[in-house]
Amino acid sequence: MPASPIRRRPIAAALAALSVLSVLSVLGTAAVPAAAQDWPSRPVKLVVPFAPGGSADVFGRFLAERLQQVFGQSFVVENRPGGGAIVGTDAVAKSAPDGYTLLVMSNTHTVNESLIPNKPYQLMRDFVPVAPINASDLVLVAKAALPAKTLGEVIKAAKDKPDGMSYASSGPGTPYHMAGELFKAMAGIQVVHVPYKGSAGARTDVLGGQVDMMFDAIPTMTEHVRSGKVKALAVSGRARSPILPDVPTLAEAGVPGYEATLWLGVVAPKGTPPAVVARLNAEIGKITGNPEVRRQWAGQGTAALTMGVEEFGKYLNDDIAKWAQVVKSANIKVD
Fold this sequence. Notes:
Elements (H helix, E strand, L loop, with lengths): L4 H34 L5 E5 L6 H17 L3 E5 L6 H8 L7 E6 H9 L7 H4 E17 L7 H10 L5 E4 L5 H13 L4 E4 L3 H9 L5 E5 H9 L3 E6 L14 H4 L7 E9 L4 H15 L2 H8 L3 E3 L4 H21 L6
Parallel strand pairs: 1-2, 1-3, 5-6, 5-7
Antiparallel strand pairs: 3-9, 4-7, 4-8, 4-9, 4-10
């Protein structure tokens, strides 16, 4: 017996509805990559939450220039220092997740997760990883007039007169601060921490003799070491730097097991379209993977880093865990 017209109508209507939904689903799926292809249609801002002149600023501008060439759109660096990188980072966390505001970060951010837990943001909650940039060892330098000439002599002087010496940093939680606190803890000494709002101010006062020492990025400080304006006491990596081959590691010079580095990367506000994140990761990876860029950075004592989005996310989580352990075991606190 043939189906009645009453039964046919609901079936036909249901099939028509399913057909429309299928078309809308396909169109919606296709819209995501299409939007990514249109990005960027206006200038992109790279916020550097540190003062001008430091590694994050220098390499952030390097990256911005090359991304501008790739995308044919302006990539503008904006320095927003303050609060150990918290001021600029919080501003990015609160910005629209549309791919037009990015953050140039360092291991300051992974350290701050345990050192400053009551921040207005959380790194892995409020940001998505985009790509790493590079990593470099640090060099511990002393003012030219400091009587101590070697790391061993510095340690002895600090033990003979606790708090009789000082070291500068670019602010709480920064790699320069943490390298200094780790040095103090592992060497068993007391040295006064003098925090600045950026590495430029810290560097200027060490060069001028107002502060005794500081850890600084090797590419930034090398010319001052070679000119004799400061004394290089030791480098922070596992091996000697090819840029300063005569300078021992801290482990060689009297602090066994010591290691500290400065690394940089890019993150975006949580909710940034995955297709935009993927495009950025691919293009930044091409830049850091370029043989000429790698050769140029290696000549400055800097190692280029290239990772996928998920790999970089694991890198961030691992670094957060590593520094949480250091902060706890060394009882490091913000001044």
